[in-house]
Amino acid sequence: MDSSSADADLRGDMTTSPDGGGRSSRSRSDDTAQPTGVRRVTIQDVAKEARVSVSAVSKVLRDAYGVSPEMRAKVGSAIEKLGYRPQAGARAMRGRSYTVGIMLTALSHPFQPEIAEGVTDELEPTPYQEILITGGSAPERQQRSIEALVDRQVDGLIVVAPEMSTSWLERLGTSLPTVVIARHGGASGHDTVVDDDRGGARLMVDHLVGLGHRRIAHTSHPTGSLERPFVLSHTARRDGYAEAMKRHRLEPDVIVTTYTEEGGYQAAVEALSRPVPPTAIFAGADIAALGVLRAAEERGLRVPEDLTVTGYDNVNASSIGRVSLTTVDQAGHLTGQMSARLLLERLNGRTQPIHYVVAPRLVTRGTSAAPAHGPAASVARSS
Predict the structure, then answer these.
(1) According to DSSP H, which parts of the chain are helical?
(2) 314-323 pLDDT, tens per residue?
(3) Labelling 176: which of 39, 56, 164, 294 has CA 20 to 30 A away?
(4) pLDDT of 221-235, one tens digit each?
């Protein structure tokens, strides 16, 4: 149903006194009546304030085609003055809720909130509002999280690094506009946005080899249950690292822990405890690189004089002077913006899937340099 009569039943979440002055009122979980003399702002109130028809207000709220800029400004001014907010449930009854669901795996991963910020900025000038949820790393929990968003009648979904089955994601995409981030392999039922993770890892290995490093360890993350060609970013980075090492006639050295600060620390402890430790550690994520830096500091290793440490993501913390991490920029904010842009195209009628690839960029800072002759190995043996 998508008619002005349905829109006329919408009710806002703000309250107003009889003289028209708006003030907020906290919602109550019980059914206690609102204080006497206070009522909700309605779409009719907005129409009256703007001196236009209810149908005109409805068109502005729906972002309908053909609405003049003057009409949008007039209605927008009335909405702002009265504090009108249509309820999502009522909006969904007429076809759209004007909400977009975003599933991240965890807020503790610093790169993923940057993606969410990009989505938010892209949606800002539109009628859509984002709803954020975390899904963890287990496929079952991710699926429940996505289903919770669907149950809230979101108009579309942006999901980051999903590990559930390909067939389930395809069914989801055919029933609801969906953009999937950080999952390689393409799709037919939804759009995808990925970084060229293989290319980015090759950039880093080429940089380190160019500095003179030959013993380059790489910290990675468990591959999970996905079957190729469908892999998440960390697996693609590992592939790119191994390919580049072999191209340079070097032996790949992959240590699998987790993409966390603790995971990077554990990987570095393992690598630096070897009789012949690496001269460079390429962490698969900046958050893991921070753990590598901690392990190096505990062992009295100077970075980059005794040990080169690099990461991947270029999160905000990487550019802090004390950290100054050499890394690969995969443009988290841009990734979020493009995901939102593709989703809006889907909501406006596009059906053909798009596979968008973000080009990585090497960012050299203070944690990478030519290898020293011996200090890393000698300090590691004495620790």
Answers:
(1) 4-7, 43-50, 54-61, 69-82, 88-93, 111-123, 139-151, 166-175, 197-211, 233-247, 261-272, 286-298, 332-347, 375-382
(2) 999 999 998 9
(3) 56
(4) 999 889 899 999 999
**Nearest-angstrom CA–CA distance, 328 and 236:** 14
- DSSP code of residue 349: T
Cα 197 to Cα 259: distance, rounded to the nearest angstrom: 15
> Quick count: other Cβ atoms within 10 Å of Cβ 273?
13
Higher pLDDT, 25 or 373: 373
The amino acid sitting at 207 is H
Residue pair 33/10 in contact (Cβ under 8 Å)? The answer is no
270-293: average pLDDT: 97
What is the bridge-based pairing of β-strands 39-42 and 11-16? antiparallel
- The mean pLDDT of 178-203, rounded to a whole number, is 96
Rounded to whole angstroms, the Cα distance separating 227 from 265 reads 29
pLDDT band at 39 (very low <50, low <70, confident <90, very high): low
pLDDT of residue 375: 42
Question: Strand 231-232 and strand 308-310: pairing?
Answer: unpaired
Phi, psi of 130 (to 5 degrees): -85, 150
Q: Has residue 113 got a pLDDT over 90?
A: yes
Per 3-state DSSP, the chain is made up of helix, strand and coil in percentages (nearest 5) of: 40, 20, 40
Tally Cβ neighbours within 10 Å of residue 225. Answer: 10
SS3 string of 106-163? Answer: CCCCCHHHHHHHHHHHHHCCCCCEEEEEECCCCHHHHHHHHHHHHHCCCCEEEEECCC
Higher pLDDT, 368 or 97: 368
- Return d(Cα 206, Cα 277) in angstroms, integer: 20
The single-letter code of the amino acid at 21 is: G
Helices (H) and strands (E) in the chain — how many of each?
14, 17
Alpha carbons 12 and 325: distance in angstroms, whole number: 48
Cα–Cα dist 3/1, whole Å:
6
